[in-house]
Amino acid sequence: MSFKIENHQKSNRVRVIKFQESDLDRLIFPFKKHTILSLEYKPFSRFNLAKSLDEVFENKLSQTLIKILNDRDTGTVIVEPEIGNKKFDKDFLVKLSTGLAYLVGNPNFDSMTEKYYARFFVKHQDSSDSYLRKAYTNLDLHTDGTYVKEKTDWLIMTKMEEQNVSGGESVILHLDDWEHLDELSNDAVGQQNFTWGSPKSKNVDYKVEHPVFSKDKNGKPTISYIDQFPQPKNMEQGLFLQKLSDALEESKNKVVFPLPVGSTIFSNNYFWLHGRKAFNEHTGLSRELLRIRGTFFN
């Protein structure tokens, strides 16, 4: 097994997997077999791509990812490929992220881009209807898939490129490290059904209902929450959401770190929340991200 696994500097719950350039070189030929268009149009090609990735690492990468992501004590992997060389371009990163995703499960259809993945920019000027692209505002802690009918077991975020960037650090929080977990997960309001909608840019024309807090198969709390999308039905729900938001953002146990360009955050979506610090203002600011979210194989 040639990839390296370490604990993250900021959290013993987070694992870091490092790919050496020599191993990435072995992926160039099998990755060339698949264009981005063929990956988008032919779902079976994504499995072939993932198999090529696994074979480079003696079929141990898939086992490692599945074990970490499903372990409540860990649940997040940072994948750091050694990609200083220009031969590893953005198409290569799309393929690498695709391979990682299909080693553990099936991605959801992303309505925002009408593909199995989404690529989007954060820039100095923005006219969008979502915090996702607001460079100078914190993207508060949240989980993904709150407003869709599909399950969202896991989430991939890959930093494709950035220019003139200062600030904008990644922020994550493990549910079991949150100081207010017992208080708020046991609050009866948090177990009520909330209505969840989404802005026009998400291209989802329906609403869903589900609670903020549920239980996993072992009886431990899970969370499905983002601040922009719940539509409180009454004062009780509105005040609960404000209390929840404040308690998450005030947590002393958030893990804050810069994500290197080319690197991927791969997280369990039920007990890890994620967000982003605000950027420092710069007229030339630009960051491109790739997102894939989906379900584990049965």
Question: Could you characterize what this model shows?
Answer:
With 298 residues, this protein is of the alpha+beta class. The protein has a domain at 4-138 and 147-165 and 258-267 and 279-296: Clavaminate synthase-like (Double-stranded beta-helix, 4-Layer Sandwich), CATH 3.60.130.10. The protein is 25% helix and 29% strand. It is built from seven helices and 17 strands. The strands form four sheets. Strands 1, 2, 3, 4, 5, 7, 15 and 17 form an eight-stranded mixed sheet that branches. A four-stranded antiparallel sheet has the order 6-16-8-14, covered by helices on one side. Strand 1 (4-8) and strand 2 (11-19) form a beta hairpin. Helix 1 (21-32) runs antiparallel to helix 3 (43-56) and helix 3 packs across helix 5. The two termini are 25 Å apart. The model has no long low-confidence stretch (mean pLDDT 95).
